[in-house]
Amino acid sequence: MTTVDSELEPVPSAVSGERLTAPRPKPAGRPRRRQGGFTPYALLTPALIVLALIVGWPLIQLIITSFQKFGRAQVFGAPPEWVWLENYAKVLTDPVFYGVLSRTLVFAAACVVLTMLVGTLIALMMTRLPKTFRTLLSVGMLLAWAMPALTATVVWGWMFDTAYGVINHVLVNTFGLEEYFQHSWLIDPLSFFFVAGIIIVWGAVPFTAFTLYAGLTQVPDEVLEAAQLDGAGGFQRFRLIIFPYLKPVFLIVTILQVIWDLRVFTQIFALQDIGGIRALTSTLGVYIYQTSIAGGEFGQGGAIAVVTAILLMSISIYYVRQVTKEEEL
Amino acid sequence: MRKLGIVALGAAAALTLAGCASGGTGGEEGAEIRVWLVGTDTPDEAREYLVDTFEEEHPGSTLVIEEQSWEGLVDRLTTSLSGSDSPDVVEVGNTQASAFTSAGAFLDITEYYDELGGDDLLPGFVEAGSYDDKFYAAPLYSGSRLVFYKKDALAAAGLSVPTTLDDYVANGKALAAANPGKSGIWWPGQDWYNALPFIWENGGEVAVPDGEEWDAQLSSAESVAGLTQVQDVMTNASAAPKDANETGPEVGFCDGTTLQLSAPSWVKWSILAPADAEAPGCPDQEANLGVYALPGKDGGAAQVFAGGSNIGVSAKSAHPDLAVDALKIILSDEFQTIYGKGGLVPAKLSLADTLGTDEVAQAIAAAAGNAKLTPASPKWADVEAAGILQDLFVKIAQGGDVQSLAEAADEEIEAILNS
To answer: A171 to chain B nearest CA, in Å?
Structure first.
């Protein structure tokens, strides 16, 4: 911004006749709030109203419900009884909840790491592929991404089917691994999460890969070329040049993956119907559903949901702060 | 049969959309009644009869049948019956009914009790559909569980139809031993309905009332004896996946890997479905398909689970009068006779003879005469929805320690029933 300020000495400009002064240095301490900042708020209002209606209202309802004894009779109109913190006490002293919580955290962490790793590798590969193959890969990934999670889970479930699945068939008939005859992939919790992980990562990789690929096209070629001439290997170039350039993109994609994977529902829920033991494979999202909607304990389910929301928020806030710090630099 | 069902569903969906387009006219004129039927049990003939009769009696109004799946039904009914877009008439499993009658989800239809059939209605189901001396959900039909078997396989192994429960288990194991890799009794791990007769015949119970509370009984000596027998069948006679659910019993029967299986009576029609149907069956097996009622411990028919459905009008129905009219058609002799001919026990005692006199009918009559229900608690539906019994039997199928598994399950069941 070029403002004329009488206190500062004007300097000659390249444009003939024009004289410029440097902008007045910002006063130390907190940046001054801009005057007349009404317009931004006015512009934000419609979005805020919509958000308040579709996010805020249910959230308030959820919090209210979590303080009540709210069963199926209350759903159909009976007045609920206020029990305040009883639901929370019940949830936080329930060992089942901690089992579900730790299972969810470990599983989500594994999925996020795997998704980011595979997504990055595919994005890097896309920069090197000839155009035809890149298009082919993009279309393939787009289809995987466009596939509804439920459909994908059912199809993957068929492939891993105990009696008629193609995976067991190939393992037995092509590779001669007889122990996979009628092998149940879902009955052992670890194996269940292996299958669930494949489905989730398979569904999440396209988004990661596309976003990172878009970021990669913005890394200036000359910097990479210079580094190459200086003798930097492929991994060094990624670590020292590409990663710092794409750090904000990596952060945002990671936050989204963390949030999505922590509240995963469809894949686990549908897979539990196909096989496996529910009590050993429920994650937070499924556990909330089982408690409130299937079990008719909406109050207790609400308490679990609030705890989950607080957890998700505290994780996200940490990452969002990282991103904003990144932008300030 | 299933293919037609899907076509009907598509037509229903189209009608729903059409209904939306013409909605807003208000009044009883052009009203649309939505009927939720669950699963493929209700024959297409009955569906057509219901739609045609209703639309004939109420010119201008339409009746749409929306087919729901059994899986997750309690959850779906909870959300849909409480919403502003509630279906008008809904089918619900008899063991699930009290969860909704006690919550006030259904319209009180006590005043129509006599008109709907009165004391001719199946008494156990009337009880399941009543709460606080009020009648909320009428019986729809009762299904009983039968054992289907391949006549040639039984003959080849030199076996005959078992007369006691122990014979049944021994037969299953002998069949499995004589046909490696095949199921002498096909029993996927999540199928807990078939385990109930083993518990009951050995003198055990799932849960019994104890004052205000419920006392779960799966770990009693009698129940454990039954559960041990179940484990014997699951591990030594069944080649079914240890953690699969009981859908698609006809698949194994038709490809020859299942030699015997216990299933609801209408599974006969799944097995005999045309080979090119959406869910193909094997009609060429008709002559080879034998059927008998599960034998009891001391002979006779075993106490089997009296599966079946109730049907009620949603308390939030926009057209309760029309919905009750639809209910009257469903409980009419004409409609119920179609169930009888299809191998399901009609909702009225006087129509029992519509089942016919063949082998299946006799087996159904024998089984229905000795049928029993799950604990009569409004919270029982929550036990089912939580999948406690599914988990229990998957673990039993894996060869776990029956006593400790049963004790753990008892604790979980009591926690829900007494909460």
So the answer is: 17
